[in-house]
């Protein structure tokens, strides 16, 4: 962001509306990653991962995905059952009917496909576990952005300077985490 002098603010820095634009951008980025909709291949991958653990019926699969994603993703029956049919057509799963319910299990080819599927899709949702749809990292980022906005609105010049130094150090430390092997 370009530094400007903001009306009513202390010293150089982004205008208050720029802070809110950045906050909104941050929030929308996290919401896209942890929202209730996943990509097209995610239902397929989730079904394969779950069936690799044990045979299940469709409703169990839906419940397990919702539970494991911390409530941030609940695929509809309209996406799970067609996926099950497609996997059956491809010879990756079999279905046994008992008590009016179809229970699905992986075939050998399905086990191989499940191993290649990689991590479960809900593991890429940021680890949401509190039912908010946000995992700990996005939640911490949003709370930090709120604190920055509060310091910018009400802080003294010294507090703004101190907060800037804290943020710069936090940025450096975050990058150093990524640089570790």
UniProtKB/TrEMBL annotation:
Pfam families: PadR (PF03551). Residues 47-115 form the Transcription regulator PadR N-terminal domain. Transmembrane segments: none annotated. Gene3D superfamilies: Winged helix-like DNA-binding domain superfamily/Winged helix DNA-binding domain. InterPro entries: Tscrpt_reg_PadR_N (IPR005149), WH-like_DNA-bd_sf (IPR036388), WH_DNA-bd_sf (IPR036390). It comes from the Bacteria. This is PadR family transcriptional regulator.
């Amino acid at each position: 962001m370009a530094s400007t002098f903001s009306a009513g603010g202390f010293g150089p820095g982004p205008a208050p509306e720029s802070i809110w634009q950045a906050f909104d951008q941050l929030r929308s980025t996290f919401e896209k990653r942890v929202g209730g909709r996943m990509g097209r291949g995610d239902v397929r991958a989730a079904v394969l991962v779950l069936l690799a653990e044990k045979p299940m019926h469709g409703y169990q699969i839906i419940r397990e995905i919702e539970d494991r994603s911390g409530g941030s993703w609940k695929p509809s029956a309209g996406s799970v059952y067609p996926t099950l049919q497609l996997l059956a057509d491809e010879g990756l799963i079999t279905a046994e009917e008992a008590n009016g319910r179809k229970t699905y299990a992986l075939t050998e080819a399905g086990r191989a496909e499940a191993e290649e599927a990689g991590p479960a899709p809900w593991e890429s949702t940021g680890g949401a576990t509190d039912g908010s749809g946000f995992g700990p990292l996005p939640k911490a980022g949003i709370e930090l952005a709120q604190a920055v906005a509060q310091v910018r609105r009400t802080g003294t010049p010294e507090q703004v300077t101190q907060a800037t130094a804290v943020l710069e150090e936090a940025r450096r430390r975050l990058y150093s985490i990524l640089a570790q092997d």
